[in-house]
Amino acid sequence: MLSVMIVDDHPIWRDGVARDLAEHGFDVRATASDGDSAARIARAVRPDVVLMDLNLGSTSGVDATRVITGDLPDTRVLVLSASGEHDDVLQAVKAGASGYLVKSASVAELVDAVRRTAEGEVVFTAGLAGMVLGEYRRMADAPSAGHVPPRLTERETDVLRLVAKGLTAKQIADRLVISHRTVENHVQSTLRKLQLHNRVELARYAIEHGLDQDG
Which residue, among 171, 170, 210, 163, has the nearest Cα to 191 in the 3D structure? Predict the structure, then answer.
């Protein structure tokens, strides 16, 4: 059973999300209403996924995300926010969030996003992934384009190129005609070799090295 923690300063919304997830078989291990308590409680209960709102008062959801992902590398943060603004999305991703979902998402979309986040996928509301990848492309270091670290195998590099293009693990598996598990193994191996923490960092690394470009 996947364990989840919900952080939101609106009790009715927080309780509703907790109820929806519990009804779909998740272990809602804890809730929090502010960033300070969120970081403290997360360290105590160590959930698989933290659903994080951004507007939390004195300690923002971005700050709480940075603390949680820094302290708990096995816990993934999925932002669930009313905002889909460019700056909010980028700040959350830079803080270590594994994905970003707007609150207009349906219960089915939320359940799917939490499960995929727990499995290590990067999950965004439609349109937001392209925004993030586009920003990383603008930040790319042109002289390093085309450089592929020799310590990556050919297959790891193939997977990395497709991660940079924003494909999901399932899409990568279909494209390369390999299993979903094999894709995950390559992703985890590449993360270890490059000393990165999540797929967002992996996509950024790939884009900075020109691996999202065809040819």
Answer: 163
Where along the chain do its domains lie?
3-132, 140-208
In angstroms, the CA 141 to CA 134 distance is 14
Fold of domain 3-132: Rossmann fold (3.40.50)
Among residues 183, 193, 65, which one has the least CA distance to residue 205?
193
pTM: 0.66
Instruction: Return the sign of the alpha-carbon dihedral for residues 147, 151, 155, 159.
Output: negative
Average pLDDT by consecutive 10-residue portion of the chain (215 residues)?
94 94 96 91 95 85 90 90 81 86 92 91 74 54 46 85 82 90 86 78 77 65
> Quick one: CATH architecture of 140-208?
Orthogonal Bundle (1.10)
Fold: same for 3-132 and 140-208: no
For 195, residues 6+ apart whose C-beta sits below 8 A from its C-beta are none
Alpha-carbon gap, residue 62 to 7, rounded angstroms: 12
Query: 112 Cβ partners below 8 Å, 6+ apart?
Result: none
Task: Summarize pLDDT for 23-40 with one digit per residue, the tens.
Answer: 999 999 999 999 889 999
